[in-house]
Design brief:
With 402 residues, chain A is an alpha/beta fold. Chain A has 2 domains: 156 residues, Rossmann fold (3-Layer(aba) Sandwich), CATH 3.40.50; 214 residues, Rossmann fold, CATH 3.40.50.1100. The relative contact order of chain B is 0.17. Chain B has a single domain, classed as TIM Barrel (Alpha-Beta Barrel), CATH 3.20.20.70. Chain B has a 9-stranded parallel beta sheet. The chains are: A alpha/beta (402), B alpha/beta (274).
């Protein structure tokens, strides 16, 4: 049964249905409780909101355009496709939206050391950027495997003054980077702010990241109203932890006519053990401070996720998404590495836009859906990041040397 | 009276502190791990903390992380961990065993089923490091019903505003994590530990055991003089790690070596309360 509103969560303990919550060591509990209190105060503080708004406009370059992708639309021959151009933001992805918000909270709380985990490096770059902007010390935890496949972003972070710590525990990817960031945080919680890179982690992070990212959906609504005079029919976004997807979806959750599709990365395929599709192949569990769908073996041991895109290579998904999945409000689809590569190239050639491999998963789903839909069906794809960082990975996958 | 309660009561009557020794179940192999655990009471261990291996132990330092990965690689499972306790109980019905670990393997087992099977195996307490009081009801309720204590953690960040939440619903004992950090990190000073224990005791009548940063018999003695129990983990796990070579081959007599080291720590704890 449909609810009156899908925008009332989380509850006072940080739960979306049974998902979310605060599953962290006792040492960190006072810090997240204080963070929640400060965040709620900040939301009522006009000077905080004014500073956030100013930075969004003058530093990130918001609003990002909502662009009618005419050639892509014609090529697919169905739905009218718009791209929400988050890749045009400063630093080249949506991650800056929540990094700015969180660094303002760090400043407000008097913490001058920043840590972050990163997969593709986009969140790491965004965090290093805002730390530089506010003159704060920044340490970014990144899996050794990801450092290898995202070298340009590693160097960007160094240029921005951040220290990149190579993480070699576990699978040496995003989940392990998050483990090491938590380990560092628990030892330095008195002066360190953890800027989490997705709508996950202990409460209030999923709510806070969602709120900062919701500017994507709010702008989309306003822009489409101006350009088409109506709401979109379908929204499509890729999903790893779920920050860009929840950011686009959240303002539309109570618009019943708007369909939403989040696209997980299924790597080599859902029937293989090389996937990152937590909703499709996982089950509820607890990791990194929250309850949600997780890829896990029989004994609750965590599976090493796989995706060609480092930013989706995570064995869990943000808790609000787990809830929206069970409520049936959002559809969770998936795209393989090959699907994403094909979409990546199509977007390059039809629109002259090199999309991030992460965002290419959303385009891949649009390639399946759009041809089946009428021409007056309006579809918005969140182009969450640009693909310059991915050219080495793509070249390798296509067997080309650069 | 529960085994934990009986243990602390008896030690208190003797004016002694409990020596709590930690090892990861199934590390480095089922055989060696079982031998270590079975040998612990004879070398002076009062309470056994048995780690439940998890792939992502985000509250632990490298030593216990590696121990978990070794145990999982050697085939450790939750059922095997409970099996180790069942075997132990065949010859020992007094030494309390506390299982320590992360929530996901327990959650995946099912909280009710786990509480029932753990009680049947002879488990006395649970420490789930990523399950704070606000979230632990779903495990605490079936565990308590099965006669298992859920042991709460207090830390240097637990101020007087936080401590009432921590001790409310706690049973068995309170474990004070003496350092804000991961296992195997820095050590706290004896004075800080003494002050923290006194502060926690203002909020609860439960015994307070102290862990984190205790690596030597001398440190164990200093903690034992100031608390109801001293917990040693990483230092013991390090002896196990040193007995495993790059190819995973185990040194002969490893269990005995671990137990010899454990005996020295136990002697330290006893010396601390003399």
């Amino acid at each position: 049964m449909a609810r009156n509103s899908y925008r009332t969560g989380p509850d006072e303990k940080g739960h979306f249905g049974i998902y979310g919550g605060r599953y962290i060591s006792e040492t960190l509990m006072p810090a997240v409780i204080e963070l929640e209190e400060e965040y709620r105060k900040a939301l009522k503080d006009p000077s905080f909101l004014a500073e956030l708004d100013e930075l969004n406009r003058q530093y990130i370059g918001r609003p990002s355009p909502l662009y009618y992708a005419e050639r892509l639309t014609n090529h697919l021959g169905g739905a009218k496709i718009y791209l929400k151009r988050e890749e045009l933001n400063h630093t080249g992805a949506h991650k800056i939206n929540h990094a700015i918000g969180q660094v303002l909270l760090a400043k407000r709380m008097g913490k001058n050391k920043i840590i972050a985990e990163t997969g593709a490096g986009q969140h790491g770059v965004a965090t290093a950027t805002v730390a530089a902007l506010f003159g704060m010390e920044c340490t970014v935890f990144m899996g050794a495997v990801d450092i290898e496949r995202q070298k340009p972003n590693v160097f960007r972070m160094k240029l921005l003054g951040a220290e990149v710590k190579s993480v070699t525990s576990g699978s040496s990817t995003l989940k392990d980077a998050m483990n090491d960031a938590l380990r560092h945080w628990v030892s330095n919680v008195h002066d360190t702010f953890y800027i989490i890179g997705t709508a996950a982690g202990p409460h209030p992070y999923p709510m806070m990241v969602r709120d900062f990212q919701s500017i994507i959906g709010r702008e989309t609504k306003e822009q489409l109203m101006a350009q088409e005079g109506r709401l979109p029919d379908t929204l499509v976004a890729c999903i790893g932890g779920g920050s860009n997807a929840i950011g686009l979806f959240y303002p539309f959750l109570d618009d019943a006519s708007v369909k939403m599709v989040a696209v997980e990365a299924s790597g080599h395929g859902l029937d293989t053990d090389k996937s990152a599709a937590s909703i499709a192949s996982g089950r509820p569990g607890v990791l990194h401070g929250f309850r949600s769908y997780l890829l896990q073996y029989d004994d609750g041991q965590i599976v090493e996720a796989h995706s060609i895109s480092a930013g989706l290579d995570y064995p869990g998904i943000g808790p609000e998404h787990a809830w929206l999945h069970e409520e049936g409000r959002v559809t969770y689809a998936s795209a393989t590495d090959d699907d994403a590569l094909e979409a990546f190239q199509l977007c390059c050639r039809t629109e002259g836009i090199i999309p991030a491999l992460e965002s290419s998963h959303a385009i891949a789903e649009a390639m399946k859906l759009a041809p089946t839909l009428p021409k007056d069906h309006i579809m918005v794809i969140n182009l969450s990041g640009r693909g310059d960082k991915d050219i080495f990975t793509v070249a390798q996958a296509l067997g080309e040397e650069i | 009276m529960s085994r934990l309660n009986a243990c602390f009561t008896a030690l208190k009557a003797d004016n002694k502190a409990a020596f709590v020794a930690y090892t990861q179940a199934g590390d480095p192999s089922l055989e060696v791990s079982s031998a270590i655990i079975q040998g612990m009471p004879a070398v002076g261990v009062d309470i056994i903390e048995l780690g439940m291996p998890f792939t992502d132990p985000a509250a632990d330092g490298p030593a216990i992380d590696c121990a978990a990965q070794r145990a999982i690689a050697a085939g450790a499972t939750m059922k095997q961990t409970l099996g180790i306790v069942t075997e132990f109980r065949k010859n020992n019905d007094t030494t309390p065993i506390v299982l320590m670990g992360y929530f996901n393997p327990v959650h995946d087992y099912g909280c009710k089923a786990f509480a029932k099977d753990a009680a049947a195996a002879g488990v006395d307490g649970l420490i789930i490091v990523d399950l704070p009081p606000e979230e632990d009801e779903e495990l605490r309720s079936p565990a308590n019903a099965a006669g298992i204590d859920v042991i709460r953690l207090a830390t240097p960040t637990s101020d007087d505003a936080r401590l009432p939440t921590i001790v409310s619903g706690a049973s068995g004992f309170v474990c004070y994590v003496a350092v804000a950090g991961t296992t195997g990190g820095k050590s706290a000073t004896a004075d800080n530990i003494g002050a923290a224990v006194r502060r926690i005791k203002k909020h609860t009548a439960l015994p307070v055991a102290v862990g984190f940063g205790i690596r030597t018999p001398e440190q164990a003695a200093a903690v034992a003089a100031r608390a109801d129990g001293a917990v040693v983990g990483t230092a013991i796990v390090d002896v196990i790690a040193a007995g495993v070579d790059e190819n995973g081959t185990l040194k002969a007599g490893l269990a005995e070596e671990v137990l010899d080291f454990t005996r020295k720590l136990a002697d330290g704890v006893k010396a601390g309360t003399e």
